[in-house]
Each structure stands twice: as C-alpha cells, then as structure tokens.
C-alpha cells in the first residue's frame, strides 16, 4: 500500500517535518487518501510529588506517576499548523520502569492548564477527572501509547495532558529533558485529507433479485503475428496482450428478459497467466464468427472503455461492469484489448473444467401495468445503513487501535484485518436483498473474503485483543479496481434485526484499503461502508381520483452519456416543452464539478427538436420560458464577462437574459450588474434570479434579488440593502424587457428587514398583467405606498407597470408564512401555494397551525389559496395531520381550463381523497402530483417512485409534463427506467389533464 506519510520527530518546540508522498509508477497503487503522521515533541512537562510538596521537577530527565509515593505528571504540546482533518491523536511516553497497571491520561480542561515547569505539589492545578485512556500493564523499556483523540486539539495552540496513577506500582517515564531525544514524550497526530481524490464512482444500483446467467455463445482471440489464423476459436484460452497484439472477442445471446436491464456484469476466469495491466473492455461492431475470424477480418472496437481492472492473478476471477452496453434482449459482443506487454489468458467456453465467459444480467422486479382504479402497485425500497463503527488491526502494532482512521486496511503481509459492526433494523416489507458495499481506495488482484464476526468495542479492538474468530465465509469478491465499489451479497445472513458484524479477511498479499465510516463522518471522503437493504413493499394505492385524469400518456428518458439533472421546464404553444438542464462537463466527474447548461426544445411527442449548450465558466442558468412565436427565453446569473453568443456581457457580476430563435440560434443577450460602493470603489454583487415568465408579445418578465445598486435599463436604482453580509438577505426587483431586448419597466421592492423582500414567483395573464408572489418586509412599496406590516404577498401590475392591487397576509413577529408559487387562471384570478406557522384570517375564516404560539420552530402547514382577479380573498385550503405534519409544495401550473396541478413532497393522503402512497414513516418524501379544480377541490392525486429532486411542471395543450432527475431504478405503469452509467438522467412524464 502507498499511504502518504509525514513522519519523524520535531524539536522540543514542536516543529513538524516536511510532507512526503509515495507514488507508485503504474498510477494504480497510489492511495489518493493522503494520510500524514505528524509527530510533536513535548514543549514542556513536569511531575509533582506529594512527599516533596515544595519541590519542582521541571528539569528532571524523568517523570514519576505513582500512588506510592503519590505523584502525577503534566505534559504540554504546541500544535503547529497542518493541512487536513485530525482523525487520531496518540500520546506516546517511554517507560523506563514498567508497571502492572500503567497511568491514565486525563483531559485537564481549562482549570488544569494552570501549571509550568516550576509547579510543585502545593501549587499543582486542580485534579483532572476527565478520563481519555488508560494504559494497563506496561513493560519496562517500551512505549506507552494512549489514544487521546477525544481531547480537543486546536492548531497554533497548546494542548495539555495530565497523567495520573492507577496503582501503587507506578511508572517512570522519560521527560522532554531526557538526554536521549528519541525517548522524549510525543504527541502523534494522524491527519488525513482527500482534496485530490477523484470523485467516487456511483454505487451499484440496488437490484432486487438474483441475476440471469448467460454463457458465451461464441468466443475467440486473434493475433497480429498470425493475421490469417482463426485457431483462437477452438482454443481453451483467450490470449490478450499489447506486446504480440492479441485481442479477444466474446458474444452472448441475451434472451428471455421481461423487464428493463438494471445491471450487467461480464465475469471471466483467469487462466495460468496473470498481469499487472489488465485489458480494457470495449463494445465492438462488425460481424464475426469464432470459427473463421482472423486478425485481418476482426471486428472494430467502438466508443470508450466500458470497464477496466488492472491487477489479475493467475487462476483468479474478474468481473467487469458492462451495464452501459447490455440494454435488453439480443446479441451483445465485447472486445478485450491489452494494456500491457505482459499477456493474460482467460478460460474460454471450450474449457470443460472451469466455467468460461459468463454474462450476469439483473433486471427490475417483474411488473405489469396496474389496471384497477387506484393503480395498485408495490415499491422496491432501498434502505442504506451505515456502521455503528469500524476498525482494523495491525500485526506490527499489536496494542494500537485504529477505529478513528479514514481507511480500513486488509493485507496478508504485514497482517491487517478489518471489522465492521452494524445495528440493523430491517424495514417493513419482504427483504429481497442485503448488500454490503465498500469503496476501494486501491486496486488489488483479489478483494478480501467476507467472514462473519461478532459485535465489538472499537476502543478495545487490537491485534492483541481481536473479536473472536468465526470461521464462516459469507462471500467472496474478485479483482478490484481503485476508486470502485466492492459489493458482497449478505442476504442469507442478515435475516433479522439486530447487530451484524463482519470481518474482512485478506485473500492476497497484494493488500488494499477501503474508506471507513470515519472518512465520511469527518467529511474526508463521502464513501462510507454501507449495508443496502432492498425490500418490496406490500401493495398500496398510488392514485386517487377519477381516471383518466392524472394517468400517463407517455414517458421519455434522456440518453446522454454524461450525468444530466433537471433545472426547469416550460410549455411550448404547439404542445411541446422546453427543458433547462445541467450536464457534467467531464464524464464521471464530481457532482460539484463544472457543468454545461443545456436548453432542449421537445416536440409534442417528447422527441427532441434541438438542443443548445452553454459551457461558460461563471454562468448558471435558472429559468426558461417560450413565447407564442416559439422563441425561447432563458435567464440566470453570471460573473466575469462571458460571451453567450452576441458579445461579452458587462464585466462584473449580475444577471443575464437571452433569447433563442425557434431553431435555437442566439438572437440577443443582455447583462445586468449589481454593485456596492466600497472604500476602494465599486464592488460587484450577485443577482440571484427567482423566476421568469413571458406574455403574448414575447416580452420577458424576470424577478430576482439584489444588494446595493443595479441598472436595469433606466439608470441606477438602489435596493435598500447596501451590500451582502452575514445573514442580510437581498431585496427584490421585477423587470420587464420587450421582445427585442429593450427595457420596458422595472419595480424595486425594498423592505426594511434582515430577510429582505423576496419576489419568488411571477405569472402573466391573457391581458399581459404581471402577477408576483413572495414575502414582503415592512416598508415595501408595491405602488400605493409603503406597507406597515410584513408577510406573504401577491401583487399585480398592468402591462405598462402601473400598480393594480396588492394582497398581504399580515404575520406577527415570530410567526412564519410564505407564498411559494403563483399561477393565473383564465378569468384572471390567482392560485398560490405557500405555508405558515401561527395564526391568520383568510376570507373571514381563522386558521391556526398545530403550535401557533411556538415561535420560530413550530411545524408549518401547507397552503393552497385563490384570489380574485382584483385581489380579493376567495378560497383557501390548508393541509395538516393531527400531529402537525404537512406536505411541501413545489411547482404549480394552471392549464387553459383553469385546472391546477401541483408537485409536492409526500403526504398525498392529506390532499383529501384518502390514503394514497407509501406510509411516510417508511418511505418519506415521495414525488407526489395532484390536480385541483378552479374551486381548489382535489381532482386526483398520484404518488411516484423516488427521484433525486422535485418535479418541474409544464402545462401543455392536452396534459401536463412532469420532468425530474432519475438516479435509481424507477417503475411506472409496469415499466422500469434505469439511469445510464448509474449517474443522472432526465425523465419526462406526460400526464392526462
């Protein structure tokens, strides 16, 4: 293994030696988890003795810790700066004279730090009773190592530790004045980081059943050295290498699958020849026959590498993930291409003693489209459990614990064994599979065996005191690639709730390590070990209402190789829809990495008409809208001076607005800056964009927030907030830009509160009036004068920006309420969603949340309301159960008939049509869609499988489009949808109105 180490002893002032890092030349052995060992020598120490109450011993080369005569020791270390996360701290003192029961380390807290090397028994600090660790028996001439990781340790500060006796058989230890500097007290810190660690691969999809196995229907290899030979088709070995240029080809006939493929694994048994540079697996194209194909007639590889594992040992086994190529029934072929001049051989299908190439295919659980009134279905539920604790033991450090470190080591020489302990509470439903998943930090020719173990105390688990050995092998794994998940099927053993412990037992002297649970807890690596429990629920109603309203017309899935997530969607007048998405710029890159913003125009049947990509640093698209002529408007934030197609935007930070033609060409772009006046001149501010709408003439109406000043086209305006700092929220604006990009009008909504006025949603009606909803602070002026209260608001302005009316739901201090979304009905009335905690009156009816007077932290109730075309209160519904729990509204849209559709997170049973969906305590926050009549009466409710985030809605002529981000297998109407590359895809569902 190649853990980076920073070792050595510092001076008595606590200096730390320079960092070093070992990097293996093949690029596979480097452990990207950077582990440093920082050793700090005591800056001061002393001991005090009761029998010499006025004597100081700060200059003594030794220290005594004993009960007879009574004595105790104090140590102080200067913690110099380091980079990374401190995971363990170990105090090491050298025992010159041993003991049957060594000292105990104590945290002195603040009072115990009042000492120096002149301290005596009479002037000693108060006794410390905060135990950190005890030594036990100590042998003379050995190091005492105490795990004091629970001690609070700060950089650029002193850390104190007290040693107190546990017996009359005391110890004598070397002090910082000892003539042998190598024996002086040490504080050894383990510091770990993963700043340069590549993003971890996505975890395997949690398939719910066993695989279907297919044996190769044809296999062969060809050689450049014998370009006309087809002898590979009858060979019992498949040779692959990059020296003699030999390639192998495999074909499988996949038949009989009735559900969508969720995972596919190519399994090969290595023959007599192994390699440290295993081949890559590719898709191939071109016809071939194993009895006649030669080097000269061989098929060609296409696309990128499907899978690759470097270290392959003779007579071992390797598995390649080929899910991206196996999409259903039919013939599928693979090519194996060498990466090393060292040949490797695989067992072919002609072998009679060892299985040849196999393809293992997992599909979704068998499903049929529900035909009953409530669309009864079962859900496959994946529950992820993390260890209570994990650790490893080290043969060469037999008395040291490692339960706080960021990795779990497994090796035969030197001996490293790892252990994991889970407290499993099996969820309701039929358990289909239980999978242990570990993230490999290094590659190896053989993953460890998984053995059953017993629950253990990590603070006591060492090589000298391991958990009792249980000789029961649960599972094997094969060759492992670095930065990949290793999966063990433990379904047969995890059959009941309770503690379940496992041991990782090495199968190879080519050791490796896995990310530990502490790597995740300390935010070093988000790749903790996990148990994934896959269950199948009991049948439940997923729909309430009168069909066909809310039922499915069609489903479309995006098919980009890069991860893609949904941002926003909008209707197109011809029945199509536009989607704004973000796509990773590097395939398999980190989720937080650079993304390309993509605008996609879909036809009415869901097909793609065109896409337009914007891969600009510092640019983030937020909203999209489509005009009556089919032009596409988009808005978002920017920094710098990006060129979105019509020249650079104004240098600085702010908001952009652009227009695309019906064919996707950039027509015009506009940039709007925000700034504050600083001591050295103007300072740029961001402009967060909230919403976007359009009118019958193709104008754009944008709402957002800003601090300081901004110029929207008619000269600088002031936000009422000088600059962003601490929790100071921005005030808002409403901006209207006509079809050609020219300024029409703007309204600044400036409130006098820390939060600021927030205009979060906008809609435009048939008369081109602009309706905005959100939350208003005291002092906000909608056009008729500053308001004297605060609370949720809906306001309307005419086509020219003249104020028409404003509705405000006054809330008192300590109570919360918000308007989240607004939509306009055909008669000009307004539907809105929101939430509240407290008391209020609407249309003459009083409302109160479950805990209305529990200021600040009471449960919020969801609201769906309606105002007339003049702002009068018409109707309101609030949603809450008897325990104060409620749903969370997301998107709201209104169709041409005035019907309202909302997307929300869970709690469909609160919407008034009875029980629907999986119980919230088992499967919370399921995507839920609901349809309401103009009167706000519930028409239908539908609950879907989980998606990554909320659904984005777009009303089209004959239904509603719901767009979400697909991250796991998703079943709808008996069909499974699985994300490509186990990453992120878009899923578009069209529902009937």
Protein structure class: mainly beta
CATH topology of the largest domain: Methylamine Dehydrogenase, Chain H
Q: What amount of the residues lies in strands?
A: over 45%
For the record, the CATH architecture of the largest domain stands as: 7 Propeller
Tally of discrete structural domains: 4
Helix content: under 10%
Largest pleated sheet: 11 strands, antiparallel
The backbone outline, from C-alpha atoms, is: globular
Number of helices: 1
* CATH C-level class of the largest domain: Mainly Beta
Number of strands: 71
| Alpha-carbon Rg, integer | 34 Å
Look at the structure and give the mean pLDDT.
92
Low-confidence stretches: 1-31
N-to-C CA distance: 60 Å
Keywords: Secreted, Signal
Protein name: DNRLRE domain-containing protein
Biased composition (Basic and acidic residues): 23-32
Subcellular location: Secreted
């Amino acid at each position: 293994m190649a853990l980076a180490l920073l070792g050595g002893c510092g001076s008595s002032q606590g200096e730390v030696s320079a960092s070093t890092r070992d990097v293996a030349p093949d690029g596979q052995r480097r452990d990207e988890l950077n582990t440093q060992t920082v050793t700090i020598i005591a800056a001061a120490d002393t001991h005090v003795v009761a029998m010499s109450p006025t004597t100081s011993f700060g200059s003594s080369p030794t220290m005594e810790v004993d009960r007879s005569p009574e004595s105790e020791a104090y140590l102080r270390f200067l913690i110099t700066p380091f980079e990374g996360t401190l995971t363990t701290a170990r105090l090491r003192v050298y025992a010159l004279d041993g003991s049957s029961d060594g000292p105990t380390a104590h945290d002195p807290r603040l009072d115990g730090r009042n000492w120096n090397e002149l301290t005596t028994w009479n002037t000693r600090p108060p006794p410390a009773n905060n135990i950190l660790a005890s030594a036990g028996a100590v042998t003379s001439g050995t190091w005492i190592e105490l795990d004091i990781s629970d001690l609070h340790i700060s950089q650029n500060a002193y850390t104190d530790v007290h040693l107190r006796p546990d017996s009359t058989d005391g110890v004598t230890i070397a002090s910082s004045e000892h003539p042998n500097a190598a024996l002086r007290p040490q504080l050894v810190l383990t510091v770990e980081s993963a700043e340069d660690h590549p993003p971890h691969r996505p975890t395997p999809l949690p398939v719910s059943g066993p695989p279907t196995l297919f044996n190769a229907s044809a296999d062969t290899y060809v050689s450049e050295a014998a370009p006309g030979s087809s002898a590979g088709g009858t060979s019992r070995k498949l040779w692959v290498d990059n020296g003699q240029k030999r390639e192998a080809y495999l074909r499988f006939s996949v038949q009989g699958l009735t559900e969508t493929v969720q995972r596919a694994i190519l399994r090969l048994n290595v023959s007599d020849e192994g390699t440290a540079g295993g081949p890559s697996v590719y898709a191939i194209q071109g016809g071939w026959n194993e009895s006649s194909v030669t080097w000269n007639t061989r098929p060609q590889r296409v696309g990128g590498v499907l899978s690759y594992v470097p270290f392959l040992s003779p007579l071992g086994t390797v598995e390649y993930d080929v899910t991206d190529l196996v999409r259903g029934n039919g013939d599928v072929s693979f090519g194996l291409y060498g990466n090393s001049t060292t040949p490797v051989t695989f067992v072919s299908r002609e072998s009679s003693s060892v299985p040849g190439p196999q393809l293992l295919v997992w599909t979704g659980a068998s499903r049929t489209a529900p035909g009953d009134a409530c669309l009864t279905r079962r859900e496959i539920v994946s529950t992820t459990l993390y260890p209570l604790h994990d650790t490893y033991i080290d043969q060469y450090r037999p008395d040291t614990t490692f339960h706080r470190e960021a990795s779990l080591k497994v090796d035969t020489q030197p001996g490293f064994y790892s252990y994991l302990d889970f407290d499993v509470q099996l969820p309701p439903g039929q358990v289909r599979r239980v999978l242990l998943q570990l993230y490999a930090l290094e590659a190896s020719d053989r993953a460890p065996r998984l053995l059953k173990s017993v629950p253990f105390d990590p603070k006591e688990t060492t090589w000298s005191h391991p958990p009792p050995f249980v000789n029961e092998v649960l599972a094997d794994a094969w060759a492992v690639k670095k930065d990949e998940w290793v999966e063990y099927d433990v379904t047969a053993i995890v059959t009941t709730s309770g503690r379940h412990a496992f041991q990782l037992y090495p199968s190879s002297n080519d050791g490796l390590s896995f990310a530990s649970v502490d790597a995740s807890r300390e935010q070093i690596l988000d790749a903790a070990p996990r148990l994934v429990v896959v269950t199948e629920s009991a049948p439940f109603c997923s729909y309430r209402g009168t069909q066909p309203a809310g039922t499915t017309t069609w489903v479309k899935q995006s098919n980009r190789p890069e991860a893609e997530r949904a941002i926003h969607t909008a209707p197109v007048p011809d029945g199509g829809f536009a989607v704004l998405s973000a796509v990773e710029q590097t395939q398999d890159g980190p989720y937080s990495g650079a993304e390309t913003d993509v605008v996609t125009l879909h036809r009415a049947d869901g097909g793609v008409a065109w896409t337009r990509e914007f891969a600009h640093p510092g640019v983030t698209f937020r909203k999209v809208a489509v005009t009556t002529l089919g032009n596409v408007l988009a808005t978002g934030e920017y920094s710098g001076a990006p060129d979105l197609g019509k020249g650079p935007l104004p240098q600085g930070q702010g908001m952009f607005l652009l227009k695309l033609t019906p064919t996707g060409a950039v027509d015009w772009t506009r940039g709007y800056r925000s700034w504050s006046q600083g001591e050295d001149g103007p300072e740029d501010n961001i402009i967060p964009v909230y919403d976007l709408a359009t009118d019958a003439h193709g104008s754009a109406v944008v709402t957002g927030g800003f601090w300081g000043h901004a110029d929207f086209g008619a000269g600088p305006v002031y936000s009422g907030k000088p600059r962003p700092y601490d929790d100071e929220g921005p005030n808002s604006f409403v901006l209207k830009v006509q079809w050609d990009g020219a300024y029409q009008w703007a309204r600044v909504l400036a409130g006098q509160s820390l939060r600021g006025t927030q205009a979060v949603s906008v809609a435009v009606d048939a008369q081109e009036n602009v309706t905005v909803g959100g939350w208003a602070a005291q002092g906000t002026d909608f056009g008729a004068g500053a308001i004297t209260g605060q609370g949720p608001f809906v306001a309307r302005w005419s086509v020219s920006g003249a104020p028409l009316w404003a509705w405000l739901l006054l809330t008192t201090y300590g109570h919360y309420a918000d308007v989240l979304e607004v939509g306009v009905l055909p008669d000009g009335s307004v539907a809105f969603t929101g939430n509240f905690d407290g008391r209020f009156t609407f249309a003459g009816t009083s409302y109160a949340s479950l805990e209305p007077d529990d200021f600040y932290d009471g449960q919020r109730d969801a609201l769906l309301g309606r105002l007339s075309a003049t702002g009068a209160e018409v109707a309101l519904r609030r949603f809450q159960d008897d325990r104060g729990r409620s749903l969370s509204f997301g998107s709201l849209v209104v169709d041409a008939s005035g019907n309202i559709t909302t997307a929300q997170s869970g709690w469909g049973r609160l919407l008034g049509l009875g029980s629907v969906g999986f119980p919230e305590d088992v499967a919370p926050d399921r995507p839920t869609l609901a349809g309401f009549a103009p009167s706000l009466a519930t028409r239908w409710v539908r609950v879907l499988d989980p998606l990554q985030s909320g659904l984005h809605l777009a009303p089209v002529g004959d239904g509603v489009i719901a767009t979400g981000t697909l991250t796991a297998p998703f079943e709808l109407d008996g069909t499974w949808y699985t994300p490509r590359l186990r990453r992120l895809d878009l899923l578009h569902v069209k529902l009937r109105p």
